[in-house]
Design brief:
It is a single chain. By secondary structure, the chain is an alpha+beta fold. It has three helices and six strands. The strands form two sheets. The chain has a four-stranded antiparallel β-sheet with strand order 2-1-6-5. It has a two-stranded antiparallel ribbon with strand order 3-4.
């Protein structure tokens, strides 16, 4: 099933610039949120390359957290979808400062959103650690 996403002008321009600079396409969109920090709508986990950073996930059951090299270079706040092969998703919000630290090989740990309601794992969250 193919999911169609709409982009605003700012998001389209940002994606085009990232794709040109990095040679890969990254979906970035401005989502909704109740706080002043709004990293946007998460995107599916890509297949990692040598230049990407892969997070270690606590109590993992199929999730995958990857920050692609273009996101590391851009050093903007992001929201990762860590679904991986699991039957449910979680998101991990990382600030621009955390992305910069991860790119500099510093250890960063961040909690995920809760997920899994109704599934075999019940409502739960994970801690994702990079480096």
């Amino acid at each position: 099933m193919h999911e169609t996403k709409t982009l605003d002008r700012r998001t389209f321009t940002l994606e085009a610039a990232l794709a040109i600079l990095s040679g890969v396409a990254i979906t970035v969109s401005s989502g909704c949120g109740g706080s002043s920090y709004n990293p946007g709508t998460p995107t599916p986990t890509p297949t990692p390359t040598a230049a990407d950073k892969v997070g270690s996930i606590s109590a993992n059951h199929g999730h995958s957290a990857v920050i692609v090299s273009a996101q590391l270079t851009a050093a903007n706040a992001i929201s990762l979808d860590i679904r991986g092969t699991s039957d449910h998703t979680h998101t991990v919000a990382l600030t621009a400062a955390e992305i910069t630290a991860i790119a500099g090989n510093q250890k960063v740990s961040q909690g995920s959103s809760e997920g899994g309601s109704g599934g075999p794992y019940g409502d739960h969250s994970h801690t994702v650690t990079f480096n």
